[in-house]
Amino acid sequence: MKKLLAMFVLTFACKGVVIAQTNFHTNVTNLWYQGGENRTNVLTIANARLAANTNDFAGLFLKAHYHVEFLEIGAISNAFLRVIQVGDTITTTNFVKRWQGKPKEILWFLDVFAEMPLMTPQEIQAGMHKAFLPNKPLPDADLLEALQKDGYFD
User: Fold this and answer.
1) Whole-angstrom distance, CA of residue 42 vs CA of residue 52
2) What does pTM read for this prediction?
3) CB 107 within 8 Å of CB 88
4) Which pLDDT score is estimated for 24?
5) What is the Cα–Cα distance from 15 to 10, expressed in whole angstroms?
6) Degrees (nearest 5) of the Cα angle 35, 49, 51?
């Protein structure tokens, strides 16, 4: 039974990645916007991309935003620092235009985040509940759109 369940999850994850490749930006932003378990599906897509390539910007980007949305406090800083590290290596035209200033914004966010008081378990629980609410756009999704225009997902 466990093997069957594992095969189902792996098949779903791979299918999600294949589907997402045809119009990656639209698919992941729609999943994110729908909220609920769809945000977890975005994480599945991110993890599958990172399993194939640990330097995949889209996977790192999506995973970092998932950490913020679900208040996975211990993972946020390292995730976004890795986004900056990999983002700085991408030289495609549309992405470079959109990337200008983003590292500085991310570092500012991390500084503000580091100065925030620790959240209580109740606040974390309430925040995690809010992570499932729909109608929230994926932050900085324009970076994924730029990568798509550059052929990154082809």
Assistant:
1) 16
2) 0.84
3) no
4) 95
5) 8
6) 120
